[in-house]
């Protein structure tokens, strides 16, 4: 059984910071993990991903968060985290963590390549 639980969302002023965390119950260390976000009435968009540590732990970011957000993982604690700095109003969305459908695979920005999802945590950035 696999369960992903996000936490850390909230409301902040533009320029502020939040740290999101996703706790994973089930297999974790051999999977690429990712964060996506979805605003009301919008598509679910890729934010960041991180590969399994034994095959390099490479990270990748959407252009609109590059330099502001940092994804990391702690295989011992079984968490994937998203440090969000310099937040902008357009970052307002529900943020979801996700696990790739297959083990030992690389970066993907496509939601269809992820089969396990958390319930989401809301991030609201006011101007």
Characterization of the model:
With 127 residues, the protein is mainly β. The chain is 0% helix and 49% strand. The chain has strands at residues 3-7, 10-13, 18-25, 33-38, 45-50, 59-61, 69-74, 79-84, 93-100, 114-117, 121-126. The strands form two sheets. Strands 2, 4, 5, 6, 9, 10 and 11 form a seven-stranded mixed β-sheet that branches. The chain is globular and about 40 Å long. The N and C termini lie far apart (41 Å). The mean pLDDT is 97.
Query: Helical proportion?
Result: under 10%
Low-confidence stretches: none
What assembly state would you assign to the polypeptide chains in this entry?
single chain
Give the number of DSSP strands: 11
Overall pLDDT: 97
Beta-strand portion reads: over 45%
State Rg: 14 Å
The biggest beta sheet, please?
Answer: 7 strands, mixed
Q: What is the distance, rounded to the nearest whole angstrom, between the alpha carbons of the first and last residues?
A: 41 Å
SSE series: EEEEEEEEEEE
General shape: globular
- Count of alpha/pi helices: 0
Query: Strand pairing plus helix content: what structural class?
Result: mainly beta
